[in-house]
Amino acid sequence: MKAKIISIYSLLLGGLIAFWSCEKSEPTAFNSKAAIIFDYSNSVGANKINFSFLGKPEQIGEIRIPVIVNGFPEDKDRVFEVKVITDTITNAESADYQIEQGIVHGGKVRDTLIIKVPKTEKLETEVLRLFLQVKESNDFDAGIIERQFIEVSWSNQAIMPTWGVYFRTFFSSVGSTKAYRIFVETTGLTNFAAADFRPYGQAGAEVLGKKFGDYIRAWNAANPNDILKHDDGTQKGNPIVPRY
Q1: What is the maximum alpha-carbon separation in the chain?
Q2: Which of 137, 139, 188, 239 is the most buried (most CB within 10 A)?
């Protein structure tokens, strides 16, 4: 009798072990949304985008903010969301901007968030700013915290970006607000970092540099008593010397 009970117990134990083994062999389903973050590749510094109406005739400006998906493309359009952080950085009011619906179009992992801003009189004397953060949506998680934020600024003033190596190589060895205004007016560009240089290459950049230089030389020849000088920066009061 005792042997019979042990035998039944052994059968039950073996069945439970087999059941557990089957349970463990079942793969666990894994569901995770793709994440959306700001793409800093065209930013000024770590996470800033500047826009100026300087040299632009339009009355409604379009600020384009690149975003990137951490995940795979899909055939359908996907919606992402951003929120305005109202802290010491943001000083723009709701009437100063319109944030378009964020969409990553089908087949893409990179797309653009568009903010439309009207050219108003206050932009002559003020720089308006928004501090934005991506947030979760039905299609996306927010992504890593280090890439969730971006600062956007706009004005009708000369918001000079970092006067980097490409500015120093092709336009002027030293930057200033006056030099930057001339750069914008003569080239139609607002920055000249690596991403801006690539489409032009060496030859094209030299052509832009010569436009910048020709403007300065023509002005100085016509206005010998009022030549173009740096209005701020380390060389304030000194002549703007073009590289080409």
Answers
A1: 121
A2: 139
Please state, in angstroms and rounded to a whole number, the distance separating the CA atoms of residues 126 and 157.
8
Please tell me what DSSP assigns to residue 172.
B
For the chain, 244 residues long, the average pLDDT of each consecutive 10-residue run is 47 46 44 85 71 86 94 95 94 97 96 97 92 95 92 87 94 95 90 93 97 97 96 94 96
Asked whether 70 and 174 are in contact (CB, 8 A), the reply is no
What does the CA dihedral 44, 46, 173, 127 come to, rounded to 10 degrees?
40
Give dist(CA 148, CA 26) in Å, integer. 36
Rounded Cα distance between 177 and 174, Å, is 11
CA distance 181 to 203: 23
DSSP letter assigned to residue 171: T
* pTM score above 0.70: no
Is the CA virtual torsion 40, 42, 43, 45 positive or negative?
positive
Q: What would the two tokens of residue 117 be? A: 């801003």
> 168 by DSSP, 3-state: which?
helix
- For the chain, helix (H) and strand (E) counts, in that order, are 5, 10
SS3 104: strand
Q: How far apart are CA 199 and CA 209, in angstroms?
A: 15
* DSSP, res 47: T
